[in-house]
Design brief:
The protein is α/β, with parallel strands linked by helices and 503 residues long. The chain contains 15 helices and 26 strands. The strands form 7 sheets. A 7-stranded mixed β-sheet has the order 10-9-11-12-13-14-15. Strands 16, 17, 19, 20 and 21 form a 5-stranded antiparallel β-sheet that branches. α5 links the parallel β5 and β6. The mean pLDDT is 91.
Length: 503
């Protein structure tokens, strides 16, 4: 495998070798790698004429248009940093992101009132793609991009209410792409279903996995996600071979009963991450497609370039439904330590990641960077960059198992409790389709454990309580249980814990 020092030469080589292959495929139009390369060069010409320089930041009001993807490639080829905006976010959140990044310009396919207003208020240029003149440039002649150059900034929610912008470098992504290509045995004939929005970390898998392997990216419109029958039909029509999403998206399709053995005939790999996939639910999907598809559970924080571990699901995993599927083994060229509350190594504690996929920190936010990105000193007094994930894991037989979140670990009635353990017990009820457990602190001596459940069956909170009495100790039983038709989701398709906690 050839090694690349930056993403400029990585993409240049891929585009040259696969110039006639389809890079991006829509239902009514397809674009070759040669066309994608040419469009990105046009945008680089605009950068040059507009004094947008290497290490500058630009923002993209990304709607998965061909131009949006070409703009991302243009940034990677010129050393400019991009950030994808969620245009449906509240104005304040977008404004916070713009203030943190201070972009030279915001690019968009169409006029958007909220973006126009923000640009005027922050004195940032708002540029429509159609206004960019056709000015090709030789993007490869003089530019030099070192591996530490920031490729993109991906925003996550912050506990203070201000979003955190994770800075990921060219070098981080080169390691990530090489891992994807080997782990998934990517072929140029593969077609990635781009389910996730481009401002969400999971999209990194689709974009870089496809377009830096000579494969095809198939954008899936956001509206289609809410139409299960149409979505499944589209994935089949577009002959997608690789699916990556949060488990909630697959659980939703299962709940809506739109999946049969006649669906997804071209999918060779189902991969999922971003939240736990209860085995009782995963088994339904596995039973349908395991005869022709591989199932891979992945784990990784945004701060460490999307994915840091993976695990292939087998039939043996369903013998015990009492815990989530294993997170698997840490990727090659990664390392980790598990630390207890006192910073000592243990087999059950907080997962801390080390290695070249650990990002640069939070953009323009040194205080929060120092809180989560630390230096780890090994027994030989050698320091490595380390990211504290906040995830509690257990190591057994050289595999990692998710045990909860540091911030989801509560102390209730004197007991330490992982809320995820209660959720898993509830998921083992065959009538339950989705659930989440939150802890609400009131004026009483103790807070309340509150469970929210979605189901299409006729069950009551008393039914659930009786069931749990045989599964959990009394101090872990929910104080109240709410039965809903469907649990609320956030912009990334995950169950919205914050919204439920505020009820």
């Amino acid at each position: 495998m050839k090694y690349y020092y930056n993403l400029l030469y990585f993409f240049k080589n891929i585009a040259t070798q696969n110039k006639d292959n389809i890079s991006i495929s829509y239902e009514k139009k397809e674009y070759t790698y040669e066309e994608l390369d040419k469009k990105s060069n046009q945008f680089i010409g605009f950068f040059s004429n507009s004094h947008i320089l290497q290490n500058d930041v630009i923002a993209i009001a990304n709607t998965k248009s061909f131009e949006d993807y070409a703009m991302m490639i243009a940034c990677l080829k010129s050393g400019v940093t991009y950030v994808n905006l969620d245009i449906e976010n509240p104005k304040k959140r977008i404004n916070d992101i713009v203030n943190l990044c201070n972009p030279k310009a915001i690019f968009s396919l169409v006029e958007m009132d909220i973006i126009t207003e923000l640009c005027e208020e922050n004195k940032v240029n708002f540029i429509l793609y159609k206004s960019i003149e056709n000015s090709d440039t030789d993007s490869n002649s003089t530019i030099s991009i070192d591996g530490e150059t920031i490729a993109y900034i991906m925003f996550t929610s912050g506990s203070t209410g201000v979003p955190k912008g994770v800075a990921i470098t060219h070098q981080n992504l080169i390691h990530f792409i090489n891992w994807i290509q080997q782990r998934y045995e990517i072929r140029t004939t593969d077609r990635f279903a781009n389910i996730s929005p481009m401002y969400f970390d999971n999209s990194v898998f689709d974009f870089y996995g496809a377009l830096f392997s000579g494969a095809t990216l198939v954008p899936v419109d956001k509206e289609l996600i809410t139409k299960p029958i149409e979505l499944v039909g589209y994935i089949d029509k577009m002959q997608c071979t690789i699916w990556f999403s949060v488990p909630s998206a697959l659980m939703y399709l299962t709940t809506m009963r739109v999946l049969t053995s006649d669906n997804f005939k071209n999918i060779r790999i189902f991969t999922f991450g971003g939240e736990g996939y209860p085995k009782s639910e995963l088994r339904k999907l596995h039973n349908l497609y395991s005869n022709r598809a591989t199932f891979i559970n992945v784990y990784g924080p945004t701060e460490c370039t999307c994915i840091c571990s993976s695990y292939t699901i087998s039939e043996d995993d369903f013998e015990d439904l009492s815990e989530l599927p294993s997170l698997g083994s840490i990727n090659q060229n990664f390392s980790y330590v598990i630390l207890d509350e006192n910073g000592r190594e243990t087999k059950l504690g907080e997962l801390c990641l080390l290695g070249p996929n650990v990002g640069k920190g939070y953009y323009n936010d040194p205080k929060r960077t120092q809180e989560s990105f630390k230096k780890f000193t090994n027994k030989n007094n050698y320091e490595k960059n380390m990211y504290k994930t906040g995830d509690l894991v257990e190591k057994r037989n050289n595999l990692l198992y998710f045990k909860g979140r540091v911030d989801n670990q509560i102390k209730h009635m004197g007991y330490r409790i992982e809320l995820e353990e209660i959720e898993l017990a509830i998921y083992n009820m065959k009538e339950v389709e989705e659930c989440v457990v939150v802890y609400k602190r009131g004026k009483a001596n103790y807070g309340k454990i509150v469970a929210y459940i979605s189901t299409n069956f006729e069950i009551s909170s008393n039914n659930v309580k009786e069931y749990l009495k045989d599964k959990l100790p009394s101090y872990m039983l929910p104080n109240s249980i709410s039965i809903l038709d469907r649990l609320p989701k956030n912009q990334n398709g995950k169950i919205d814990r914050k919204e439920l906690k505020s009820r």
